[in-house]
Amino acid sequence: MPPITTVAAIFRDTISQFADRPFLHIPAVAAKAYAATAIDLTYGEAERQISALEAIYKAAGLSTGDRVGVILENRAEFFLHWLALNALGVSIVPLNAEATPSDLAYIVDDSGPVFVLALPERVGLGEKIMTVAKNPVRVVATTDLSTLPRIEAKSTEPTAATECALLYTSGSTGAPKGCILSNDYFYVMGDWYRNLGHLCTMIPGTERLLTPLPLVHMNALATSAMGMIMTGGCIIQLDRFHPSSWWQTISESGATIIHYLGVLPAILLALPESHYDRAHKVRFGFGAAVNPKHHTVFEERFGILLLEAWSMTEVGGAAAVMAQKEPRHIGTSCFGVPESFMEWRIVDDAGKDVSPGQPGEFLVRRAGDDPRAGFFSGYHNKPEETAEAWAGDWFHTGDIVREGPDGSLHFVDRKKSIVRRSGENISSFEVEAVLSQIPGVAAVGVTPAPDEIRGEEVFAAIVLKDDAEPTEATAVRITDAARAVLTYYKVPGYVAFLPSLPLTASQKLQRGELKKIAHALVEKNAAYDLRALKKKQKAEKSA
Fold this sequence. Notes:
The protein is an alpha/beta fold. It is 31% helix and 24% strand. It has 16 helices and 26 strands. It is globular, with a radius of gyration of 24 Å. The C terminus is likely disordered.
């Protein structure tokens, strides 16, 4: 294996074999806001543009140790500027254009970029960020690199340990944390993906991977990008998820792999049947958190295997797990059997190993002499939180899982989203899976709400379909239907109807924000209080 240096070096190594093969395809539906046609680049064509940009950045003095904030969205510019900067040892700090200027100002102040690079139409956003930031920096348009600030270059050459990207996690309470991701992290992520084999086998130089996920997060930036770069495959990058044109785009793009999150299959199953449903070449989908009741239905309708995986920004490919082998235990939230390159434990709140089959927090580390090899390098400016996450030389994931009889692992819930009601641990994931199947429910999020007697109560935030009325009668109907499936104490005690759920750019539920909403609504008596129905059910059960 050649020495790992930078992601750019890995890209250039791929060119030696696949210079004339497609590297990037932006379908017309994703580029229509700024281009008349689809955008296509081979590895060789991309390299010529990357080299030209690298020369410009080098002349400006950019070098190892510098950071650049980027507002480049899901466009070709993101890949080209990222690889050009990476070749010089410069780290990128992706900024999500959908976030507020104040949230982005926090990231700018925390990360300390030398400037922010923005698409021309996002320069205005960049300037708004700087009006809020405590330490504003110059905003440079991709079309006017002549305005780059001049920086005193350093002589240090980038290595595998050099920071490649600083990604800020979202969806938790408190300020976001910047995860320092090295070149080695990106290599390990791509190496894991390309070597999965079995149902996830990739053929070098032929795969075309379509993803609607945002490049500001690790799935698109590290997993799909590195999986393709390290196998000479083509990245089909959408600007976002387009349900109505999804299957047509997949068919016309020649995609062989798709990436998804749990909400996507649910939306696609709700669409009317079309001749495009199976007019594709896709062999498998790579993702996580598909509703267990949707899994088989989706595979049978669309002819695509949904291969569930587990990882997180901090972990990358160093301790990732995937259900790429049979049996996949469809319908049980199974994400596979861990490979020998990692070590793992499932522990209770006291840190003791639980019995097989019992749920507990998932702890992981790399097997071998260095338990942190291939993981993130730490939380930026947060050494105490990094140490806490690695307590006892195990990375504490915050995910609750259980082990099946054959050693397979099954996701239960996020530790922070467990509802602890009268000593019972209730999985919000389980309750959401049941509520989402009830007629009239378009989307649902479950979170704990305060309860003066039981400590916490199950709170369900529900987005209704157009034909359902947001009334107390509807709330009772939904909870009655849930009671037929769930143990009584798992049924929501509070129900609120919202126009939409708080989601991240990658369509994940912002559980910290939902919890705040639930607390506020309960405090204002603005949610339907159905706790008495749970008490009645409890009495009936014990009678």
